Request: fold
Amino acid sequence: MRKALQYPWWFLIPALALYLTLYVYPVLSGFYYSFTDWNVYREQISFVGLEQYRSLLASNDLVTAFGHTLIYAFVVTVFQNGLGFLLALVLNARLKGRNLLRMIYFFPCTLSALVVGFMFSAILHPDGMVNQFLGALNMPFLKQEWLGDGNINLYVLAFINVWQWAGFSMAIYLAGLQNVPKEMTEAARIDGCSYFQSIRKVIFPLIAPAFTVNVIMTLIGSLKTFELVYVITGGGPGTATEVANTLIFKQFSQGQYAYGTAVSVCLFLFIAAVSFPILHKLRQREVEA
Reply:
């Protein structure tokens, strides 16, 4: 029997060096600097222990930003996956021109957040396309300050995110649907299952890995959101759309580096605390399915 090839372990050194330099060292440095008084006004950095975290907890900034981040992430995760799954079901059928439709629905994913932000800032302006359309329909009572009303603008931002990334979720669900054996869906129909029953009892359990990937990627991505919120509202008006990363950006732009780093550490722990239990639960569901 031919002996398997043995590769020297030092082949790993270049990749490991890059990983340690560009990821591990910055992360560990961030943890350290969150325990200092590092800011633009100090010539020397001193260790101050939990002082930055005490300041965070004493202010309302952290609770407000993380509360908005959680609401945003929940809305995006639910609606992006729901819409992506529906699009995948429709475009998995034998439709004429379905490849063109897949391309059209996936196209927003290729746009940068900057482009999407400027586009929707114009569309949702008080004199923009949406309010003009409502006026043309003789429904001026539906006109809103879509990006200026603190009661709705966070949800508007979430749905803009859904519009941009639903096509990405669709593509992952499509990959899962195309691996579902047709014999199983046909057998379900023969056994008397309706279309919706076959989706719930046959198709959805079989695409459990695709569901897990989509939910976790959408959840983590929306918890880390920054570009779209910053371009469209900048976290305003006031703090109505302030999320974790806009709070971090504001602290760094004001020279409060240690304080901003402490918020970054809190965001890291927050994402881990939210995503790992959900990932564990979804993995269990995959095994049960």
Notes: Residues 68-242 form a domain with the MetI-like fold fold (CATH 1.10.3720.10). Residues 108 and 163 are 7 Å apart (CA to CA).
